[in-house]
Amino acid sequence: MSMVIKRCRALTFTLAIIACYFPATSPAQGYPAKPVRYIVPFPAGGSPDIIARTIADRFTRMWGQQVLVDNRAGAGGTVGATFAAKSPADGYTLFQCNIASSAIAESLYVKMPYDHQRDFAPLSRIGLTPNVLVVHPSLPVRSVKEFITYAKANPGKLSYGTSAAGSSQLLTMELFKLTAKIDVVFVPYKGAPQSLSDTIGGQIPATVQSAPGVLSVIQSERVRALAVTSLKRIPQLPSVPTVHETVLPGFEVNSWYGLCAPAGTPAPILDKVHADLTAVLRVPEIQQRFKELVIEVAPTSREEFARFIHAEAARWGRVIKDAGIAQQ
Questions:
Q1: What is the rounded CA–CA span in Å between residue 41 and residue 23?
Q2: Is 258 strand, coil or helix?
Q3: Among 8, 113, 123, 128, which residue has the fewest nearby CB atoms (within 10 Å)?
């Protein structure tokens, strides 16, 4: 019996030595071994889609596997987010998270099919893009200060339009109203393009739009830009001041995009995708492409991005409550 015990101990020791020299294969080794799905919760053709396809193309080249962009639009980005949250946590589904579905939705919708904090593993922020407050040229204001003065002199008579339910542009203006203490009536639209079209046509006097979506219209002088919502002016509109540098110091709103994976995805895979995404975002060609889209490349660590999303969700939850925006 003692001989059997000694042999068992010897075998255990031998197996331990083998394990040291030949460790178990990491989940990241050989990843990806098949095509990867990249979920974008917005339609094809817009800035989010262009961002996704630019990154997916680089990943495809790096990994030797197809990274396929899958557009699943609807409900302020929550349709795509729901699909991603319920996907297998094996590294073969990535989700392009964003301010709408990852920070605003949980305070806006009564019934949420996912919990971003619980159901996603944040990888990195990709980039930031500001919004722009613009008015029809007939409105007798040429600055943020004049806009606020005009609104206070005409409470409830000035209106603005933008896409409803969960858009960064809607909440930007509601935060602006709260901060400036003005009464401006919200006119809801199905989408940002329709509200911009009506501002150009003079049907509504003001709108808040994403910088990429309104840039050409500002440059053609069909609308007047009063301010951008980033802390710094953007190169594409050097003469347009920020809200921060006018009469509301510290005011800052940026729409943002990032990359997440379903919660439970193995950490080694998350680390690999994070490292590869960071490398992609350092490529000068990619940075130039994003600059053309009015997007500031702004990668983070996994931990920093998790904290950023948490802070954004808390911030917009307060705005929704304080502005009295009804839950959907």
A1: 39
A2: strand
A3: 8
d(CA 239, CA 88): 48
Q: Tell if the pTM clears 0.85, that is, is over it.
A: yes
CA 189/CA 181 separation, integer angstroms: 24
198-211 tens-digit pLDDT: 999 999 999 999 99
Strand partners, 187: 161
Contacts of 47 (CB under 8 A, 6+ apart): 129, 210, 212, 213, 293, 295
Say which amino acid occupies 319.
Answer: V
Angstrom CA distances, 111 to 115, 172, 184, 217, 237, stand at 10, 23, 29, 37, 40
Angle between helix 168-180 and 302-322 (nearest 10): 60
Contact assessment for residue 277 and residue 124, using Cβ atoms and an 8 Å cutoff: yes
Which domains does the chain carry? 36-128+255-322 (3.40.190.150), 130-228 (3.40.190.10)
Q: State pLDDT tens for residues 274-289.
A: 999 999 999 999 999 9
